[in-house]
Amino acid sequence: MTLESLPIASLPTMAEVWQQTLNWQPTDQQQKQFQQLYELIVEGNRQLNLTRITEPEEFWEKHLWDSLRGIAPKQQFFSSLPDGISVIDIGTGAGFPGLPISIIFPNCQITLLDSTRKKINFIDSILSNLSLTNTKTIVGRAEEIGQENKHRQRYDLALIRAVGTASACAEYSLPLVKQGGLAVIYRGSWTPEESKSLKNAANQLGGVIELIEEFTTPFTNSIRHCIYLRKVVNTPIQFPRAVGIPSQKPL
Ligand code: SAM
């Protein structure tokens, strides 16, 4: 079964779901690439434990749709994804949210970072299969990459999904973002207490919470949140702290 022909009870076509939820539709070529991505991930998953999400409907919703929803605050794709901007996906795992964004924005420079070599090796094979020449990979820890001159404060946009507490995600992402740029933290549930601790963490890292958006996913009606942090001043040099500290002692 192809992803674009999934039978969805209440909505006639996948094209309509994209249109209604993101005010956008993929081209035929992008749909083809989504399908190839799906097949490559299912295939790779037979040998590598990459993701638990392999059923077509779940893959479409949790990997494709959710990845793209994060860069469409207020249901509009970022007007700030102009050609040439640099995007980093931290703790990309099997390539989410970064790979769908690479497919949709071929003129953005995308970097996919993960600490696990086997995941990055697998992503390298996907990039070559899908001819995604706009995307490169790094094996490493966000705590170390964030202290390297060639990465620190170099990215317009940082994305981070399912890599730890919101405060740890802020410490992994904000040091990599340029002043004026954004970090997007993808979350499931969200509480006022988390907002409070994230506000405090972001403040120490040179960022502010610009927007917290709650939305529901189109098939399973699951609640999701994206938190948009704006980098307003340079991150002090002591951040990110050494490997393991952001998760063990969140700011
Ligand atoms: N972002 C993907 C997603 O949402 O499907 C993968 C999430 S997976 C639960 C977390 C990933 O983050 C793993 O692949 C892990 O290797 C990576 N990771 C965890 N801590 C990291 C760090 N400090 N630096 C870089 N990668 C990290």
Word description of this protein:
This is Ribosomal RNA small subunit methyltransferase G. It holds the Pfam family GidB. Its main location: cytoplasm. It is found in: Cytoplasm. S-adenosyl-L-methionine binds at residues 91, 96, 114-116, 142-143, 161. The N and C termini lie far apart (46 Å). Helix 7 (166-173) packs parallel to helix 8 (192-205). It is built from 9 helices and 7 strands, in the order H-H-H-E-H-E-H-E-H-E-H-E-H-E-E-H. The chain has one domain (10-248): Vaccinia Virus protein VP39 (Rossmann fold), CATH 3.40.50. It has helices at residues 14-22, 28-45, 56-69, 98-104, 117-129, 142-145, 166-173, 192-205, 245-248; strands at residues 86-90, 109-114, 135-139, 155-161, 177-187, 207-216, 223-231. 36% of the residues lie in helices and 21% in strands. The longest helix is centred in the N-terminal third of the chain and has 18 residues, at 28-45. The protein is of the alpha/beta class and 251 residues long. The chain has a 7-stranded mixed beta sheet with strand order 3-2-1-4-5-7-6, sandwiched between helices. Bound molecules: S-adenosylmethionine (SAM). S-adenosylmethionine binds next to strand 2 and helix 6.
